[in-house]
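### Sample
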Amino acid sequence: MAIMMPASDQAVLARRAEIIAALRAIVPGEGVIDSAAEMRAYESDGLTAYRQPPMVVVLPDTTEQVSLVLKYCAAQGIKVVPRGSGTSLSGGALPLEDGVLLGLGKFKRIREIDFDNRVVVTEPGVTNLAISQAVVHAGFYYAPDPSSQIACSIGGNVAENSGGVHCLKYGMTTNNVLGCEIVLMSGEILRIGGKGCENSGYDLMGVITGSEGLLGVITEITVRILQKPETARALMVGFAEVEAAGECVARIIGAGIIPGGMEMMDKPAIHAAEAFVHAGYPLDVDALLIIELDGPSVEVDELITRVETIANACGSTSCQISTSEAERNLFWAGRKAAFPAVGRISPDYLCMDGTIPRGALPKALARIRELGEKYQLGCANVFHAGDGNLHPLILYDANKPGEIERAEAFGADILRACVEFGGVLTGEHGVGIEKRDLMGDMFSEIDLNQQQRLKCAFDAQGLLNPGKVFPTLHRCAELGRMHVHAGKVAFPDIPRF
């Protein structure tokens, strides 16, 4: 599939050999990849419908090398695309023909585990799951847990503000990151935040988290770790109607109960996951809720009783409660494997990511059904139901003419519906290129220009990950210029600097 990206700089491409030689001087050995065959592994991320080989791949292994690479590229006017594990589902790490792909895969050390302050200081290439594995012996874990946690890197999690099944109670990545080391396009190395829970001044960590590689390259991250709860049990509740499951979600949250995680799957997703994992999911239901409750044993027992009562009032047809840690993990195994499981029932699928108010869940599900009929394509739905984060998986066959275009139109209409219902275009996958051209459905031109002004403060030349997030690129000078009408500036009495 073709997608509009920034025009390639032919002057840069003409100097490719010279640029590669300069980069090899900065990152020696096997740190620079320039052959077409070897760069094929980097031509896309998890959104494989879009592919573009980079001009060159650079794999530094120190912050100093990252700084020197960025400083050189800034001086030469060369675009740079940062990349973690490449699991992004929004095209955020799609390379550019005239750009350097800066891979952080060699940054895979945990630098410090500080149980006294309950933090881990890690490099960005460490996988999400590896952080929990490094502290599990002391009864700790890292809360955000994307489905791809076995493979996705913590640096990528920060870039996309990733979520996961347990983010309902314990927060997204932004709620669990305390500090970072970031290298600006100029090569300047900044340290933002740290081990302390509070920092004075502007919330720069909030700006960096979810910035999708547009502001800088993260080379170190300090994350909060939590003690594992005394007890965690999961309920698997089936419903004859998807809308009834959505109503159950709203009532549980409305009752003041905040589960550790609350996920929903519809019938196609249930059948695919069960055939893949054999988790014991009921196959005679149209919707399945997995609800995890954690805390002291007495509290968990009480909450289970209350949730059962709410589910029954919403018309649940089945309810199974985990009786062991192994059974709880099995309940979750099917949900965690839902994305690869759906890959067994369809040659291709698009994994969408939008967020709505919880109360709009039944309405959103009905709209997705209508759109499926309109575009004549199947859809398996997997939701972070507790926080309204939808993941419709649109099923199509790329070998059939026109199906990918219909799938993309289907997905765009789902995201427009999310905005219509009071939600947003993304919950955790980011904007990238997938949702870039829909940003105007959610933001006005003034809003988008203000966001680009923030980027200009970090990257005045616009060299970091251009073509992502913003549907219309502007030069920083254009965004800052003053409007003059009939030879007069507006508000002439205001002091100007």
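Residues 10-103 form a domain with the Uridine Diphospho-n-acetylenolpyruvylglucosamine Reductase; domain 2 fold (CATH 3.30.43.10). This sample (FAD-binding protein) is used throughout the tutorial notebook.
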